[in-house]
Amino acid sequence: MKIYLTALIRARSEYRDEILSVLQHMVEETRQEEACELYSLHQAIDDDNLFTFYEIWKSQAGLDNHNRQSYIQAFGKLIEEKLQEPPTIWITTLI
To answer: What is the pLDDT of residues 35-50, one digit of tens each?
Structure first.
């Protein structure tokens, strides 16, 4: 079963450029993963600190493998200090 994931990420203003760079690196790496069907990064028009990922994964196992990758783990270490709040994540299925 495919997994559809949406994540909202709110960077602290002083770290926005650093967070954006990390997120863009995640896009480059993730799009090479076999289980990744779509991995798109968006930035809000009215809030430069708000980023959204929209993702489609072939399976839960593929998403689980993605979450174990070093570039995802590196992002996780930035959350407490450089984000306004923990990411909001919705995992859904298409109906």
So the answer is: 999 999 999 999 999 9
Q: Comparing C-alpha atoms, which of 51, 4, 75, 86 is closest to residue 67?
A: 75
Q: Which amino acid is at 23?
A: L
In 3D space, the residue among 74, 70, 89 whose CA is nearest the CA of residue 10 turns out to be 89
What does each C-alpha distance from 21 to 11, 27, 37 come to in angstroms? 12, 10, 22
Whether the CA torsion 46, 79, 59, 31 is positive or negative: it is positive
Q: Which residue type, as a one-letter code, is found at position 55? A: E
**How many whole angstroms from its chain centre is CA 19?**
11
Angle CA(34)–CA(5)–CA(50) in degrees, nearest 5? Answer: 115
What sign does the dihedral 36-54-30-32 (CA atoms) show? positive
**Which amino acid, 54?**
Y
